[in-house]
Amino acid sequence: MNTSEAIELLKEKGYKTTGKRKDILTYFENADGYRTAKELIQHLEETYEGISFDTIYRNLHLYNEVGILEVTELNGEKHFRMKCASHHHHHFICKDCGKTKEIEVCPMDDVRRSLSNYEIEDHKFEIYGLCPECQTV
């Protein structure tokens, strides 16, 4: 998903697209991997002096709720990234820098066979570790 698609989705859902909201979306579109609310606020403080964590978290929650951002938890803190809408895949996530790498393998075929009598509504599969760059530090 890109910023333009995200703005269209917000409009379809009846939400306004302010300058701050567009800047948040652009930040995540340009981010390489998952980012924290703290990283986002540090980025936005250059433009919006005194921006509050309330504003940041409210928008992050909204974007996650409408399907613009994905969320994961690393080291006890929520991390966000722009949702990938192109095709079904999973991620390797670096625990140090938050960069991600797509994983094309999905374990759900085996899981569906094991749970043939169950209705599976959704799933999430992530692998955590250190990317090559963080291993050399």
From TrEMBL:
Cofactor (UniProt): Zn(2+); Mn(2+); Fe(2+)
SUPFAM superfamilies in the cross-refs: Winged helix' DNA-binding domain (SSF46785)
Main location: cytoplasm
An example Gene Ontology molecular-function term: DNA-binding transcription factor activity
Coiled coil: none
Binding site for Zn(2+): 94, 97, 131, 134
Intracellular or extracellular location(s): Cytoplasm
CDD domains membership: Fur_like (cd07153)
Origin superkingdom: Bacteria
Free-text remark on how the cofactor is bound: Binds 1 zinc ion per subunit. Binds 1 Mn(2+) or Fe(2+) ion per subunit.
Pfam families: FUR
Positions of Fe cation binding: 88, 123
Matches recorded under Gene3D superfamilies: 3.30.1490.190, Winged helix-like DNA-binding domain superfamily/Winged helix DNA-binding domain
UniProt-listed GO biological process terms: negative regulation of DNA-templated transcription; regulation of secondary metabolite biosynthetic process
One cellular component term from this protein's GO annotations in UniProt: cytoplasm
Annotated keywords: Cytoplasm, DNA-binding, Iron, Metal-binding, Repressor, Transcription, Transcription regulation, Zinc
PANTHER family named in the record: FERRIC UPTAKE REGULATION PROTEIN, ZINC UPTAKE REGULATION PROTEIN
Family of the protein in this entry: Belongs to the Fur family.
Protein name stated in the entry: Transcriptional repressor
Source organism (scientific name): Ornithinibacillus hominis
